Amino acid sequence: MAGQAVRNRYTTSQMSVLLAATFALLFTTVVALLAVDQQRVLLAAERLQQQTVPEIIRFQRLTRNLEKLRQEGERLLASGTPAGRQESLFMIMLVASHPSILEHPPSAKLARDTEAFLVDAARLASEDPATLPLRLAEWQQIVTRLNLLVDDLSVEGVNLVASDLVDMTAAMRLANYQLIGTMLLVGGFLVLTMVLLRKHLLCPLQRIDRALSSLNVDQPTPDFPEASLAEIHAVEEASKRLHSVMLSNQAALRKVELLASRDDLTGLINRRHFMDLAEAELRRAQRYNRPVAIAFADLDFFKSLNDTYGHHAGDVVLCAFAHLLSESVRQSDLVCRYGGEEFALLFPESTVDKAHLLVERFRERVADREFRLPDGARLRLTLSIGLADASHCAIEAALKRADLALYEAKRRGRNQVVVASDAC
Amino acid sequence: MLRRVRLIACSLAAALCLAAGHAQAAVWALKVAVLENAPPMAYRDADGRLTGFSVEVARALCDEMQAQCSFQTTVLEQLVDQLVAGEFDIAAVSLLDTPERRSRILFSQPYFRSISLWIGKPGVLPGEHGLRIAVLKGSAQESYARKQGWETVGVRTSGELAEPLIAGSAQAAIVPMNTSLNLQKNKDFQRLGLHSAVLKAPELVGNAAFGINPRRPELRRMVDAALERIKRNGVYERINTQFLPFRVL
């Protein structure tokens, strides 16, 4: 752990604040952009409404007045009387002097020209009416100019609308692109958020779930890749700690179990544990119809040894004896300190005869052995053994029969093996 | 539950009553001053009904504003005083925007653009000594002529403007463009063989507007809005065509 590079971790609240802030910023920016676009469209529409439409209506009025000029000109030229021409001239003067014409320079100039021409034509006609038809060609030129100006004004009005519409369309299109962009951006952000959540929250949680589900002393310590989120890291570390606590608990339990099943002094299994194991062994043997033998061994005159040399010496002898005993039996045989100087033995897969040979050999070995006491004194010990077949008995019954055989051995003078004769 | 339903029903009923009351109040009354004997702007038709360009524009505005307008005739001479006195809400009379008027009344947005004409014998020029000029009493043309120090002969209605010329009590006239259209139709006037020319005085050219009671600025906003609407929806153009030979805005 210490060897790993320290990396920055974020808490989930930091992550959520970061994501929310990013999203808010993104969203605000995008909404602001859209609002700007909308404003552009609104402005274009407003311009169309407030400026362009009145302008078009103004152009229409202007064209009407230009046409009025033409009509009055036609009337003047067609008129046969000075009074009729005067009437037309009056109207032409009014129209040509009206602010609606004067404010538009091309129209004002043309109106001035038209008026001047017609005033001149009327003046000449009042002298000689025959001059009027001579001027028709010149009048046609003025009419053409008037018509062209009317055309221009009509087209200009249409162009004004078209230009506003082009602006509006461009703004709308831009807004449309931005909307699509916004949707992509927001979509991308959501995907990114999901990916981040998956990578840094969901997957680690699933890993933790798997690790915790299979957390077991038989499994190795769970290993996690480096987590980015502080909480995930904390939980992962906690599950590692939990695993190590489980391991140490397991070790402690084993130790306690060991302590609970052993005899303090000799290190052999104690009576309670022996009874558990023996009972299981007997059940197994009886199920499979296998031979099993059981024995009680008791050191002869051990009480007088205690009395003579002290309890400490007795303990030393018991330890040495136990050691010798556990060395002398097979791996599969059970040996326990049953109490005091009495030991119980179980011989799985052994007939009484085979067990008899074994315990007899052991008895001889003990009898030949010199035990050394702490004060340096040496002494010899003998041992009495009661042996019984346990192949068909309950453990208590088998033990009882072995005990009886032991008693018989004591009674017969000790240092011998007696086999329980009667079957159970 | 029943009580709540009853409560809601009562509230609804009350709201409806209020709305109805409001709708009732929406039909509001306006007193509108118009001129008489001033064709083509304001005159009585064959049936005696008031009509003319100014009158019909005023009617259209009343319709737009959903106002119940009562038309009352007056003469231009007294119009501004009456408007200041509150006798009318709107003066549906073409008023050129002069400083004197502006200091006393409110003006709507212009409803047409006018020019003024000098009418006199050929060769007779404005300001010539001993010349008497026919004008409408209370008009911008009158106050212009007076400012120039010219002698004037005032008439009470536009329709009477030809009379002093025909009678010889006036040798010239200053008239607004629309009035001149009417003058031109007068046979007696035509016989005088008078010459018309545009009078290029800035105060006699330009926007003509309705007058509004100076104590009702909110009314001006409504009139302006209504005017803007009829200028766009074609109503104004139809009135223009009906009464005047060319576009006057």
Automatic annotation (TrEMBL), chain A:
| GO process annotations (BP) | cell adhesion involved in single-species biofilm formation; negative regulation of bacterial-type flagellum-dependent cell motility
Q: Name one Pfam family in it.
A: GGDEF
Q: Can you cite an annotated GO cellular component?
A: plasma membrane
GO MF annotations, alphabetized: diguanylate cyclase activity
Instruction: Write down the EC number.
Output: 2.7.7.65
Q: Which InterPro entries match?
A: Diguanylate_Cyclase, GGDEF_dom, Nucleotide_cyclase, Rev_trsase/Diguanyl_cyclase
Which residue intervals define the domain GGDEF in the entry? 290-422
Under catalytic activity, the entry for this protein gives: 2 GTP = 3',3'-c-di-GMP + 2 diphosphate
Supply the enzyme class, top level. transferase
Task: Tell me the keywords, alphabetical order.
Answer: Membrane, Transmembrane, Transmembrane helix
Q: Where are the transmembrane segments?
A: 177-197
State the protein's name.
diguanylate cyclase
**Provenance organism:** Candidatus Accumulibacter affinis
Q: What is the lineage of its organism?
A: Bacteria, Pseudomonadati, Pseudomonadota, Betaproteobacteria, Candidatus Accumulibacter
Automatic annotation (TrEMBL), chain B:
Q: Signal peptide: which range, if any?
A: 1-25
- UniProt key word Repressor: no
Keyword flag Signal = yes
Keyword annotations = Signal
In terms of domain of life, where is this protein from?
A: Bacteria
Indicate the segments forming the Solute-binding protein family 3/N-terminal domain, all copies.
29-247
* UniProt cross-references to InterPro entries, sorted A to Z: Solute-binding_3/MltF_N
User: What is the name attached to this protein's record?
Assistant: Amino acid ABC transporter substrate-binding protein
Gene source species: Candidatus Accumulibacter affinis
